[in-house]
Amino acid sequence: MYSLPAGYLATDGQVASASQHNEPLEDIKNDLNDARPITAGGTGATSAADARANLLSDSVNALIPLTPAADRLAYYTADDEAALTPLTAFARGLLDDADAATMRGTVGAADRVWQVKTGAYTAIAGDRIIADTSAGAFTVTLPASPNAGDDVWFSDAGLNWFTNNNLTVDGNGSDIDGAATFAADADGGYFTAIFDGTEWQVRLTGGSA
Fold this sequence. Notes:
Elements (H helix, E strand, L loop, with lengths): L17 H16 L14 H8 L2 H4 L10 E7 L2 E6 L2 H7 L4 H7 L7 E4 L3 E2 L5 E4 L6 E4 L9 E5 L11 E4 L10 E4 L5 E6 L4 E7 L3
Parallel strand pairs: 3-5, 4-6, 5-7, 6-8
Antiparallel strand pairs: 1-2, 7-10, 8-9, 10-11
């Protein structure tokens, strides 16, 4: 904080001396024009760019030259260097997923573990499904718009498909071995539905249909 020198104050009727006013004015001029040290509450600079350089860390200053743009993310290439990289809406949708399972759902990748289903379900490519029909028949719908090589695996671990209730697999717009649906009706059945680019093909491993 600036303090005026002693003797600066003039009173009515007093003849002002040069030392009372010239020195304070020179001090004020210097204080306004010269760089005030950071320790004295200044920036240590006479320009905005130099002030930022003095007051901000190298990591923050590295971001200043970057030009913000839609769908771009800043990242560091060194301790004091930064750049922008594309960040698409799809990538943002993946980043806000809370866990790996949610991420796999976002990208359409199955959780490659066997999962028990007891009611209607729409599969995604790569699903491993233990279809428990002990409480009643139900339908598993295969993925829409599948890609060649996509597969879904099915198992009747509880031996229910014939003894109790059939499992129906729906092609979701694509044929399954030439038909719209496939009925799994053999206890202990185990099969894979594989999309060949045109239709789903059933590959039986156990039981019969």
